[in-house]
Amino acid sequence: MSTMLEVSGLSHTYGSGEKAHTAVRELTFTVEAGQLASIVGPSGCGKSTLLRCIAGLTPPTEGTVSLHGDRVSGVPDDLAVVFQDYSRSLFPWLSVQKNVEFPLRWRPVSKAERRTRATEALEQVGLSGVGGKFPWQLSGGMQQRVSIARALASRPALLLMDEPFASVDAQTRFELEDLTRRVQREQGSTILVVTHDIDESVYLSDRVLVLSKSPASIVADLPVALPAERDQITTRESAEFVTLRGEVARLLHGGTPEEAATAASDAAEWELAEQASDVTESKTSS
Ligand SMILES: Nc1ncnc2c1ncn2[C@@H]1O[C@H](COP(=O)(O)OP(=O)(O)OP(=O)(O)O)[C@@H](O)[C@H]1O
Asked: Residue 9: how many CB atoms within 10 A of its CB?
């Protein structure tokens, strides 16, 4: 696997002098090509600041960001971002098809190719046939699918997602998580998702980076050893999922990596034993 994203010694401080506020401190990590990684951290810890630095929107105060070996010093052409607030990122006066085509206008892509790519991207997110509608004619979940299609149409080397499912209902959230995993597998995309939702970080990813309270630093980098094929019910009930979810929760509450791993594994065993005894009881009483 080759390295797609390299973040090295990255720090960012807002303001200066007495008003200086360090949002992220000395972050170093890589994301390999084709990997789906999540960054999870407490509210206000500096997740969006980190994402803005990676996207080239905010120059870091210290350290570097490189995308496929090229130093990031502005928004790279082959990077796309999906934000939480779809209603502000889609243009209400443009059709869905035109919204998806929009960023391609600044690329060396012919009009016909723009149309083809947008149609394909809408198909990938399960929205064939709605290209002629306007965003405000669609549900929230469908609008977020349009945002994802727009990001995919530019065929990014790296797709960044900032709390992408935080504004939709729980059922739609599950559907969009599965959609993200499917697209990543089919396209071999490299995706970095920022979230404060522990379960989502584990369910979605190949790997979870856990951040500390502000100023954010990395407290753990956990591989997710769940099968590639995941299911919203059985995966979330599995011992691996329950253990990892507990480990991330403990780390976010200030536990050391060793304490978090041991306690989470004990708690998962207990929870699964409880589940098994519930099943046995219900069988004997029926
Ligand atoms: N433009 C800014 N100027 C000064 N301070 C800022 C600015 N943007 C963010 N901060 C501060 O930096 C810290 C990190 O903010 P950031 O938005 O990156 O965190 P976050 O983890 O994304 O938050 P949330 O979970 O609430 O979305 C916060 O204390 C915030 O108040």
From this structure: 12
